[in-house]
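for the recovery benchmark. tokens below, seq after
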């Protein structure tokens, strides 16, 4: 989701999310859909998300189960340093009290929730 579309400041604990929670978060009429995206397309979307930084124009992506590193001092096309995903069903922390993130695979497909 892009930063311009999020309207809630509530911290949601792990567990079930209700329809009311979704309406609080994104109170717009356009539906939230689940899409399958290749890692390559996810990377391109993140690159687009950070293109104009440090300008705050609402395109900065808000993500869950994914983390990325960028350097806004670099040229826009070179800012993204890496993208990592939390392994499927691996919401628990490992022995080092860290989530188990792995490098995104360009040819693998990932489930992505987005506004239509």
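predicted aa per position
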């Amino acid at each position: 989701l892009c930063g311009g579309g999020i309207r809630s400041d509530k911290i949601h604990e792990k567990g079930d999310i209700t329809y009311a929670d979704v309406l609080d978060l994104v109170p717009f009429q356009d539906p939230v859909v689940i899409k399958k995206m290749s890692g390559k397309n996810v990377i391109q979307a993140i690159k687009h998300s950070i293109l104009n930084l440090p300008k705050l124009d609402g395109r900065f992506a808000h993500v869950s189960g994914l983390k990325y590193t960028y350097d806004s001092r670099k040229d826009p096309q070179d800012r993204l340093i890496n993208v990592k995903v939390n392994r499927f069903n691996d919401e628990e922390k490992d022995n080092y009290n860290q989530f188990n993130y792995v490098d995104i695979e360009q040819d693998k497909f990932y489930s992505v929730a987005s506004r239509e």
